[in-house]
Amino acid sequence: MASKAGRKTVNILIWGLLALLIVGLAGFGTVNFGGTSTAVATVDGREISGTDYFRALNGRISAAEQQLQRQITVPEAEQMGLTVAVQGELMGQAALNNEADRLGLSAGDERVAARIVADPNFQGISGNFDRESYEFVLDRNGIKASDYEDDVRLDAARALVQDAVAAGTPAPAFQTAALIDYFGQRRDVRWLALGPNDLSEPLPQPTEAMLQAHYDANPDAYTQPETREITYAVITPDMILDQIELDETAVQALYDERISQFQQPERRLVERLVFSSTDAADAALARIEAGEITFPELVAERGLTLEDVDLGERTEDSLGAAGADVFALEEPGIVGPVESDLGPVLYRMNGILSAQEVSFDEARGDLEEELRLAAARREIDQIRDDLDDRLAAGATIEDLANETDMEIGDIDWYPGVERGIASYTAFTETAAALEEGDFPELVQLADGGLYAARLDDVVPPTLRPLDEIREEVIAGWRNAEIRDRLMEQARTVQAQMGVGSALEDQGYAVETAKDVTRTGYLDGTPAEMLTTIFDLGAPGDTALLDEGNEVFLVTLDAINPPAEEDEQIALFRDAISEEINRSLANDVLTLYARELTDRSERSLNSAGIASVHSQIR
């Protein structure tokens, strides 16, 4: 019975994968998308089918939708230039195919077979090519194997032309070196930070004239923005909680319903990597134990991500035969190979989650509050129609407060006010949009509450009187005075350094950092510190910057080249070279395809293109 159940599980997984493959290959090759098979374009007699255009355009639109996080219509795609771009790319491919024919290039059977076998769309659950999957998916999509293999042969021949064109575009050494030097350059620096405690003299008490001068010089800081005076009526679940009566059995029932949250057995954070054979799993484990490869590297080597193999939190029972071994680990480690329905498996345990048990009495308070809030939301929802009817009949905000459980309030609102009802996003949106004379409308709050609001007046930006904000002005004057005095002290130190004095001789604590990079971090310094350091031109240069009530004086001691022995620099160099190579190759290939296309006799079938567009959602 166990064997039959195992085979059933595997079959379900395989058929599920095949279903996904069918969806993934929908629209591929010769399958049509609703009867349109007319060529949408020709390049020197080579046709571009409606199916190919549909597939390419649909893919481009889907990618744009993902980026913009919204749906895109075909007219929008046309305005964005997506349709023209796809047409140009397909015509370029057709021109390259024609060039491959002209050069007598063709892919042999071995190359075609290698491409098909390597295609992840046709890999079975073991990660290897599965002929049954291949034939099944093609058949379900109405694609003949011979037609599909002809397409693969054509793609492979075109790739020969593309590779030949792109092969002569290595990354220029000077460009790679310049980028490495820029990102990998290291600098030695010293700096001092001056704060309020470093003032050479204590601040005096501000005179009336000082405060007035500061107030007059900084009107923006003391001007209240345009203010909207709003009256509102509101009811929220919290406001009527004391009216809600609870049934004790409901609290117990909710606890019982969520017992899995309150009583959780010991669990492990587990990842699972399946292998095609026990020998392959043993070999992989041996490489890990020998330090030749890590588990994440092994996962990547299989073309997977850690998300693909993550099982999340698992109990011992849920891991089946591997449960005992995984739970025997007292710290993160690897277990296996273990036989499973999927094949031999290596498990990696990443964390231990202790058993948890919260009694009913411990959970009662939270459960009662949740039930009361839910009941209050239902009560509010039941009176919504009545409130709407009252407003439609001409009731005012004051009427709602007098005749219902809603409470009246008022607020002087402007962007940035977040107190009281203004802490709700829905209210701030309403407050910003209200116009004088608008009839109050009922709006729902995120917690299930309801409110209606009326704009009473709009007060233009107003400079608040000094007498009303004296303490605020005093604080502003103190901050500005501290900053000005510290900056003056720092300039004095900077001037002394300019005539040969050392930073350490100025009587302040000096910090030192060596081999600072652009992506580094200097604790206790402002975010602009690194930018300032790398803006300095030569050793000996200095710069000042301020952050709040602190002023920093930094001096550059040395500019050091990238650390060639640093593994990160080596990885960065390889990545930069690869990216430049790819970019140059793409540019050259694009120009080459464009030149071939321009030399070709081309035609577009407007009716065929329109037919394709009509069948895209």
From TrEMBL:
It is a single-pass type II membrane protein. The keyword Transmembrane helix applies. Its main location: membrane. Keywords: Cell membrane, Chaperone, Membrane, Transmembrane, Transmembrane helix. Residues 247-364, 381-471 form the PpiC domain. It is found in: Cell membrane. One of its GO terms (cellular component) is plasma membrane. Pfam families: Rotamase_2, SurA_N_3. GO terms for molecular function: peptidyl-prolyl cis-trans isomerase activity. The keyword Membrane applies. InterPro entries: PPIase_PpiC (IPR000297), PpiD_chaperone (IPR052029), Trigger_fact/SurA_dom_sf (IPR027304). Belongs to the PpiD chaperone family. This is PpiC domain-containing protein. It comes from Pacificitalea manganoxidans. The lineage of its organism: Bacteria, Pseudomonadati, Pseudomonadota, Alphaproteobacteria, Rhodobacterales.
